[in-house]
Amino acid sequence: MATTVNIIMLVISILLITVILVQVKGQGTTLFGSAESSFRTRRGMELALFRFTIALVAVFIGVAIISAWQLQ
User: Fold this and answer.
1) Within a domain: residue 34?
2) Is residue 49 part of a domain?
3) Which of 1, 12, 37, 46 is deepest in the core (most CB within 10 A)?
4) How much is the pTM?
């Protein structure tokens, strides 16, 4: 069971890294992003990626709690 949880956590973390890198790709070339992207709303695919990222983080935290609970 512990191995399954670890594999699930690994897959979720790879997905999370990929989704975050896809979002950052269009944000400009400076360290803190471009100035024009500071006050714009998310629409379409960008909004879907943003919500998917939040869902992945929630699932990742849940799996991490389950993994820590199994160690006890």
Assistant:
1) no
2) yes
3) 12
4) 0.72
